[in-house]
Design a protein that fits this description.
There is one protein chain. The protein has one domain (2-152): 3-Layer(aba) Sandwich (Rossmann fold). Helices cover 36% and strands 23% of the residues. It is globular and about 45 Å long. Strands 1, 2, 3, 4, 5, 6, 7 and 8 form an eight-stranded mixed beta sheet that branches. It is α/β, with parallel strands linked by helices. The protein has four helices and eight strands.
């Protein structure tokens, strides 16, 4: 399950989530993707893995994704797999949503399967795009997740 918050007019975090989902599907992994505004909280437990992402805003993850994750209890997802991603301006001062999301997933009991993905954006507000090479970086990150999930699946058979 991919859950993301995307707040800009350009919907760049949604585009990153779509890329991740597309790669996982190409690799034969069943995946559902939801905006945090459209997800049914109760369904999260039905999935083996949660990939959560949001833009970095004011040095932290967007309010929407954090409110969603904070609605669960610590260790509620013990034994499930998790990963985090974000979109952000490339700056020492931008903060890091992916790191915060990963820490929260860990507190919720998710076993983190890969370091967080940070995707960089550039441009003026409402004209931002993913920087050159970020789409490919996202695809490579998603392929690593697909390998891990495939190995996990073969262990449980």
């Amino acid at each position: 399950m991919i859950i993301y918050d995307s707040v800009s007019a350009m919907k760049l975090t949604a585009k990153v989530a779509e890329t991740i989902g597309g790669v996982l599907k190409e690799k034969g992994i069943e995946v559902d993707s939801f905006s945090v505004k459209d997800v049914d909280r109760a369904t999260v437990k039905n999935y083996d893995c949660l990939i959560a992402g949001a833009p970095t805003m004011a040095f932290r993850a967007s309010r929407g994704i954090m409110q969603f994750l904070n609605s669960f209890s610590d260790n509620e997802f013990s034994g499930k797999l998790g990963a985090a991603f974000d979109t952000q301006l490339q700056s020492r001062l931008s903060g890091n949503a992916a790191e915060r999301i990963m820490k929260k997933l860990n507190k919720l009991g998710f076993q983190i399967i890969t370091p967080p993905l940070v995707t960089y954006v550039a441009g003026k507000t409402n004209e931002q795009q993913l920087k050159e090479g970020e789409q490919e970086k996202t695809r490579n990150w998603a392929q690593e997740i697909a390998k891990t999930l495939s190995k996990q699946k073969s262990k449980t058979r």
